[in-house]
Backbone:
């Protein structure tokens, strides 16, 4: 096998066109010459110069050869001799069938046609031994080559295509390893050669192996499939369902899309142009999670006509606020602003907040377990020592708490220091309520926090204009993350890592005697982002395709919806299986399969590739020798030419 | 390494000297130094005295009449005369632009080198020199004179010449006839192409004006043998007429026609009693110089 080390040099071969064109042009042109008088010069036929023509042609060929040899030598060609794989005179002939059982094979009559073609080949093959590899996204079955053809026929009889997408890479690898290297090998690939399956990184097959492709011809009939279904909550009791369909056929169609569930069904008609996507939207009442299916009418490929999904009300994030003394106006104000900000409904948010106030008696570990987020507004000083312990335990499980200072801020921050949750040092108070003329301003947001994305560019201007009349001064430690700091660099909002959870500690209360923040536009996004900062919204809903690897007790082999451990799972057929395009099995695929390192020495079952794939011979010295011979012959020929035309005015050689 | 006499007159050598004055001096002095002093006489035409013959002197200077009367050998001695006019006529038409691969210079350059050398020689002998250069009309004209600046003006005029246009021999010779007022010698330099029927007759007319005419034909070697070995589109320098041909095929016919042309020219000049000397641009200038000297001497 020929390969090149510097294959880019091969572009230089384009230069061969230059001498050829010069040769063709120059031969036909007479040189123009100003002469004193043309009175005695007769017109003549242009010369009959067969000998010269031949010589010119020879010269041209020699020079082209010389140029090509030099260019090729620079490209450093290497001849790799594959290690002989078939023993001389071997009589062992093996055929292995590689059968595609991906979901796309269920389309129309693909499956039956493919099985028939395989069985026809099986009955006519001259092989002594036959084997089978059935694959979808992985190898489903492998039958090692043997003389028992009936085993294959029996196995194929009831075989149906899976719902999984196709990935032939590992199957080719498996099939190649099934062959005995001592025998003649023939690999028959039976597939629809769908481009989404075959345009992957494929392993190579040995050059000596005969490759046969049995293609299931795609049906031209109409096929419209569902590509995706998305649900978005709208308010408390409604959800919007967005169904995306694709027309995989050559003509535009108008199809009804039906949503079915146990409680009823709803249908909408949608037009979808050829090869295009179309969306249809439904708005449904949702009171509790329920499984649904989106359906299309039957067509040539029924597997993409149904999509299983869950529809559920927006997940509730439970926020528990610790309010030991509702008579304390600052704590009441802070709670009010906090509650209002969280309970504002927004279509853009995927979650719904439920804020509950707890008094001192309810702040205990059993109740805390139900909370997604705990807020302690201006009430840190009311926590007893064991309650600090409960809070710490709650946080260490990976939960989130938000703490705001109140009038008794010194004991609150000292308790934080004492409990080891805060590494920063409490320094005292900056500013007081009587000096409102000189408010403090926020200066910067930590660029690695989610807040910096929410308050990017123009959105940060309002936050930076917030007036803070007083705040608790802290000497920031490296172990505590400062999310927002004042203009003077002192921390305004800290993220304290406690176990796997986070405690957000503000150095000023969200209350009018401390700041005008609750009256500003920034307040609502700031509070909602803080609550969601440590809250993983992905855990609420998951989508999967058939045969994707899940850490579940039993595998899922068919499209379905199910609930496990409070998670709603949706499993569907990969829409890539509906794509109609196929790869070229005449040129492209054989070339692709043979370009990788050969498995020539692979021992069946050994599973390792040979380090040495054959002997390599550098060809460039030979090319240089060819170039030298060309130079010698060229000068010889030019010499003969000069002798033949002794005129001192001999024109430069037109070649 | 000493420069040989023949090298001094080689156009390949002389053409490297840009300045015509230096070139002419080098050529003429080189030429003269190669001659035997004793046989060189002045070109004066006025008799001065007799003196006894010394063996070895040229017999043509013997006064045979005296020998017949008094039976003694005496030689005539002449006094030099400086009033002879020497007219140089240079054809600067476009056909003189040609320079083949074998020639060191173009035909016009060669003609100018010859004219410069002869003019230098003539000035050295005290003759008046005059120049007419023409194409389809006269492009340079210099009245005869022998003052110090005359040669300089002559050479400057040669320097200005550029080969252009078609040669109109008839117009030139008519104009010259008006200018020539005294006897002298006319040195005519041209390739004489396509004028073999008319030129000898026209130059003969000058002889009727008591002028002696020396016709020097300047050709490039290529014009004699058409050596090109590849297809050529020949474009006539003066008429722009084009002929595309392969020289190998037509060379024999061409040479035959050229020989015929040269033969006709020679015959025409012989009939007209005009001295004619064909020169190739590869020929030594000595040919032209000796031809001139012989010619000049014959006038005495």
Residues:
């Amino acid at each position: 096998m020929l390969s090149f080390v510097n294959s880019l040099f091969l572009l230089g071969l384009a230069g061969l066109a230059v001498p050829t064109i010069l040769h063709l042009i120059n031969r036909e042109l007479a040189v123009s010459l100003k002469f004193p008088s043309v009175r005695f010069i007769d017109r003549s036929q242009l010369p009959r110069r067969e000998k010269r023509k031949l010589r010119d042609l020879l010269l041209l060929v020699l020079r082209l050869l010389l140029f090509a040899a030099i260019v090729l030598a620079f490209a450093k060609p290497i001849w790799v001799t594959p290690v002989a794989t078939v023993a001389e005179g071997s009589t062992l002939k093996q055929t292995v069938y590689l059968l595609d059982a991906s979901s796309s094979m269920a389309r129309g009559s693909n499956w039956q046609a493919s099985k028939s073609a395989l069985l026809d080949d099986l009955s006519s093959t001259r092989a002594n031994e036959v084997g089978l590899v059935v694959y979808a996204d992985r190898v489903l079955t492998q039958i090692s080559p043997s003389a028992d053809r009936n085993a294959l026929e029996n196995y194929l009889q009831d075989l149906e295509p899976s719902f999984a997408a196709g990935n032939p890479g590992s199957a080719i690898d498996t099939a190649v390893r099934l062959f005995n290297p001592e025998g003649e090998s023939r690999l028959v690939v039976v597939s629809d050669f769908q481009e989404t399956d075959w345009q992957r990184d494929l392993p190579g097959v040995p050059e000596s192996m005969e490759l046969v492709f049995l293609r299931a011809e795609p049906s031209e009939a109409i096929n419209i499939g569902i590509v995706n279904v998305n649900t978005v909550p709208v308010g408390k009791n409604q959800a919007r369902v967005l169904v995306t369909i694709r027309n995989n056929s050559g003509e535009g169609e108008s199809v009804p899309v039906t949503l079915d569930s146990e409680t009823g069904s709803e249908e909408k008609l949608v037009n979808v142009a050829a090869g295009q996507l179309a969306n249809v939207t439904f708005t449904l009442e949702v009171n509790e999670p329920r499984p649904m299916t989106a359906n299309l009418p039957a067509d040539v490929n029924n597997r993409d006509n149904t999509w299983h999904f869950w529809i559920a009300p927006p997940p509730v994030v439970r926020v528990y606020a610790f309010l030991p003394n509702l008579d304390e106006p600052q704590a009441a104000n802070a709670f009010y602003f906090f509650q209002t900000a969280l309970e504002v409904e927004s279509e853009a948010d995927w979650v719904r907040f439920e804020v509950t106030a707890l008094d001192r008696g309810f702040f205990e570990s059993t109740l805390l377990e139900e909370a997604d987020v705990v807020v302690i507004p201006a009430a840190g000083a009311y926590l007893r020592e064991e309650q600090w312990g409960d809070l710490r335990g709650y946080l260490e499980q990976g939960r989130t708490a938000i703490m705001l200072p109140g009038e008794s801020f010194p004991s609150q921050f000292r308790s934080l220091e004492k409990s080891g949750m805060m590494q920063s040092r409490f320094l005292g108070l900056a500013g007081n309520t009587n000096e409102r003329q000189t408010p403090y301003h926020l200066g910067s947001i930590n660029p690695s926090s989610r807040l910096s994305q929410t308050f990017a560019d123009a959105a940060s201007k309002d936050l930076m204009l917030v007036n803070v009349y007083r705040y608790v001064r802290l000497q920031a430690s490296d172990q505590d993350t400062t999310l927002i700091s004042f203009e003077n660099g002192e921390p305004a909002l800290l993220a304290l890592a406690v176990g796997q959870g986070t405690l957000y500690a503000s150095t000023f209360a969200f209350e009018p005697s401390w700041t005008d923040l609750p009256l500003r536009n920034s307040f609502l996004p700031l509070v909602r982002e803080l609550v969601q900062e440590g809250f993983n919204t992905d855990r609420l809903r998951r989508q999967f395709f058939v045969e994707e690897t899940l850490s579940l007790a039993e595998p899922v082999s068919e499209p379905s919806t199910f609930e496990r451990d409070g998670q709603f799972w949706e499993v569907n057929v990969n829409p890539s299986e509906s794509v109609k395009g196929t790869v070229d099995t005449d040129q492209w695929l054989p070339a692709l399969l043979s370009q990788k390192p050969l498995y020539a020495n692979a021992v069946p079952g050994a599973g390792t590739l040979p380090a040495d794939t054959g002997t390599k011979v550098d060809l460039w010295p030979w090319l240089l020798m060819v170039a030298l011979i060309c130079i010698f012959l060229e000068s010889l020929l030019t010499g003969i030419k000069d002798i033949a035309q002794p005129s001192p005015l001999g024109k430069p050689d037109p070649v | 390494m000493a420069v040989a006499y023949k090298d001094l007159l080689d156009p390949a050598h002389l053409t490297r000297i840009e300045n015509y004055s230096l070139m002419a001096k080098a050529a003429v002095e080189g030429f003269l130094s190669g001659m035997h002093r004793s046989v060189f006489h002045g070109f004066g035409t006025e008799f001065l005295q007799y003196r006894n013959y010394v063996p070895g002197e040229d017999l043509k200077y013997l006064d045979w009449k005296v020998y017949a009367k008094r039976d003694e050998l005496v030689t005539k001695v002449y006094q030099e005369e400086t009033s002879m006019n020497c007219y140089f006529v240079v054809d600067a038409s476009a056909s003189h632009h040609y320079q083949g691969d074998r020639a060191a210079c173009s035909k016009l350059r060669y003609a100018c080198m010859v004219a410069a050398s002869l003019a230098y020689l003539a000035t050295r002998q005290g003759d008046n020199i005059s120049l007419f250069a023409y194409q389809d009309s006269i492009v340079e004209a210099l009245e005869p004179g022998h003052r110090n600046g005359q040669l300089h003006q002559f050479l400057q005029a040669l320097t200005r010449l550029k080969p252009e246009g078609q040669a109109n021999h008839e117009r030139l010779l008519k104009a010259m006839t008006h200018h020539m007022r005294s006897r002298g010698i006319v040195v005519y330099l041209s390739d004489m192409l396509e004028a073999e029927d008319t030129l000898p007759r026209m130059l003969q007319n000058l002889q009727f004006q008591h002028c002696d005419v020396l016709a020097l034909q300047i050709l490039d070697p290529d014009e004699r043998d058409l050596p090109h070995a590849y297809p050529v589109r020949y474009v006539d320098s003066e008429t722009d007429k084009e002929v595309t041909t392969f020289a190998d095929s037509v060379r024999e016919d061409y040479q035959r026609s050229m020989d015929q042309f040269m033969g006709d020219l020679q015959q025409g000049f012989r009939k007209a009693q005009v001295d004619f000397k064909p020169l190739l641009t590869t020929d030594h200038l000595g040919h032209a110089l000796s031809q001139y000297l012989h010619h000049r001497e014959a006038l005495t």
